[in-house]
Amino acid sequence: MSDNITSKLKRSNTTGRSKYGCLTCRAKKVKCNERLPSCGRCERLKLDCQQPCSRLIPSVRERRRGAGPIKSRDPDWSPQSLSPALQVSEEQPQESEALLNHYLSGYDHGLAAASASSFSVGHPEGVSQNQAPIIEAGADTLLDPIAEWLLPDPQSLNVYTRTNYSPLFFEPLVIANILSTQERSLENGMSLNNDEELALTHYRTAFSLSQTTRDPQWSTPTLLLIHALKHSEMLLHLILAVSLHDMPSNPDIVSRLRQTGHKHYEKGTEQLMQALQCENPADHLAILAAFYCIHMYMSRSNGTIISKLDRLSLTAIVHLTKHNLIVPTHAQSSLANQRSIKSGAERSLIARIIMWLLKMDAQGSFLGCKPNLANHFQAHPDQLLAIQAESRLALQLNWGAEYPISQSIRDIESCLPVDMMSDMLMLCCKISEFSHKPPCTEADVMQKSLQKEFAALEIRFGAVFYYGSSDMTLQPAMKLNCANSATMFYALQIYFARCRSSPFGAESTTEIKTALSQLLRFAMYVSPAGSQQPVYEFQWSLFIAAIEINDMIHQEWLQGRITDHRLRKSLQGISTFKRNNLGIISFSKVKEIILAM
């Protein structure tokens, strides 16, 4: 009897299709022998053997700090991203497909056909001072003086500069030239070490989730990464700078990561300044994406300087208007305008990045920056409508035939909450302007105008509030986007009420109590028990609720869902200040604490 049981168990363990084989075999539901870099079946049938990312690098679970069920994790843990592996085995060289999957997320986007020849592994060399430099020079000596404003505050460099730093050895991995499937190609022979490889993985996963609710596999950040690898060394430098700075890791290697990131930032901004000096830059998409990456890098650096963010916003709008990149209305369109950008796919992606630059303006305006792009759209609302319409098909047009129908359905479902979010970004900039108005008749007029805008938004997007809280059977993504937009709406109402003389945490009016109650209600739909939503607009909404509310139970719930490192750290300082000041804090003090982080 025992022999029969043993034989059955043995058969059950050796038959059936593999759960860990290549994606090609798993798609056809056939057995895979799990051989790397190409399995036996794919090699025999001459198929494209797509290996899952988990077979090339440690799993997300293995690299994530505090691995395990969320309920069992330390409350101070933040699930932002992936930690770089400290050791990489040198026994198995990574082949062409393995590296392509490694850099571009392991998803089958059909990009292998776009690569020329193969990735090659460089020979080990000694690590010199040029490979992992110690940043000792002042910011004014790192770049041309004209571009000094692009550099973060020199004090922020001291946070991770250590004189006793001894760099670890990493075998360099050379990226082969990835030829474009479009009309032209750009040599991109950069050499990446292991930290930088993991930074690209972090960019298309954790960082992407902090910027958009779309699946990382089909998101705008992934499109920008592909564009950088194919066409733009400048953009790749800046993507690496943001990712290396944003990627949490243990304290022993954070210094190395941030120094490497800063060198990429220097190189990327240097190339950006050269591109901006051209009369007709060849790659407007890379330049606009570079503006966004620079904003992300500056806003993550210690001691954000408002004047530099102002200059960045101004540079972006000057470039957009100089090269007529803001989509013209039908009445203004001309043949010259249509020829200035290559294709509908590129135009739509540029429009999407312009909307992201508007998001950049809204985030900066909360800290006191001048929203130059938002001011332009406020004066030309027809252009904003044209940009919104053009950007809607960005993902469909740029992914092409491989874009799944399920994602197209998500695009259609997201139109209403995305349009509402765009209007709220403009409203956020107006509230920030209102917060600086001195008490006068003009301020009273603006206050009434903003109140009318809130009422109009609530009526126009009534369906968003309904679907965001409805128990109907809906697509989860639609309910998430609707609830996310509704949450920000009520956060803006609290911000509007507290941005002038009334401090956060003070005695509430009926309007503030209602807004706070509704904000918490929709936040619970977005982030139910045991889950977190890292997209920035939602994180900002939770932050506004947390600095307004004094109830400890809700405070704990909100703090447990704020994963943005800067907002989380700022909230700790704000909570300390409120405890020492009768539970209230002014908006100016809130900004002061955030800017100091």
What is the total domain count? 4
Residues in helix, %:
55-70%
Please state the structural category.
mainly alpha
User: Gyration radius, to the nearest Å?
Assistant: 25 Å
Q: What kind of assembly state do the chains in view correspond to?
A: single chain
User: What overall geometry do the principal axes of the alpha carbons give?
Assistant: globular
Low-confidence stretches: 9-15, 53-146, 154-187, 329-341
Enumerate the strands of the largest sheet in spatial order, edge to edge or round the barrel. 1-2-3
- N-to-C terminal Cα separation, in Å? 69 Å
Rounded mean pLDDT score: 77
Number of helices: 26
Topology order in helix (H) and strand (E) letters? HHHHHEHEEHHHHHHHHHHHHHHHHHHHH
Using brief descriptors, characterize the structure shown.
globular, zinc ion binding, DNA-binding transcription factor activity, RNA polymerase II-specific, Zn2-C6_fun-type_DNA-bd_sf, nucleus, Zn(2)-C6 fungal-type domain-containing protein, CD2-Gal4, 597 residues, three-stranded antiparallel sheet
